[in-house]
Amino acid sequence: MMTWLPFALAGAVAQLVDGSLGMGFGLTSSTLLLTLGASAAVASAAVHFAEIGTTLASGVSHWHRENVDKKILIRLAIPGGIGAALGATFLASIDLTNGRIFISTILLLLGFILVYRHIFQANQPNLVEISNPNYLTYLGFTGGFIDASGGGGWGPVVTPTLMATTQTEPRKIIGTVSAAEFIVAVCASLAFLANIARLDIDWAAVGGLALGGVLMAPIAAKLVSWLPKRQLGIFVGIAIILINGVRLIGG
Fold first, then answer.
1. Which of 8, 25, 105, 197 is the most buried (most CB within 10 A)?
2. pLDDT tens for residues 59-72?
3. Cβ-proximal residues to 37 (8 Å cutoff; 6+ apart), any chain
4. What pTM, to 2 d.p., does this model score?
């Protein structure tokens, strides 16, 4: 069997989750690559290289269906890209052992956030509107840094926060966050390329993840209002917690 096929299947599943929840591609893909033995930096680099294609396809699909708020997009994407570049540089600079522990810890915490959001805040109304003009800048930068340094996290950090603090329609939040992630993926990838001498990228994994994600992106954008988001979010979060928890316990 072709070596990229399992990654293509993983990319399709990850993109279905991501396009439907506004989060999950990086978390599920990074967890898979770490499970297969990739180092922390290589896993994050491979995911972000693949996300250039998947996030572009997802962003275009959401844009076509008018799920994108242009003003929020710009205010999230630029600081998100800066944070992602710094996060990727940080991850590439630490040694392999500490990197694996760091990224598994981040993924574990993000798994708990995912479960918490979908259990306790699934039906919470959006009643708060943040007026601080720098709010989206801070949120974008934080989400970008965590995403690149942790192998995923843009969606789990940014999407639920916007849903809890703004009155923007959920479909527009999901579409806007997905579109902004393209800039985050490009900036993280450029930073990883600057450290390419330290990394051994599995390009079959990159190509497979990208192919599966790109093919699934239009379908996920169409299904955004149909899939059972709460149950799907809880299931994905528990799987991420278990896999990364076992990895940390096992050393």
1. 25
2. 888 888 888 999 89
3. none
4. 0.77
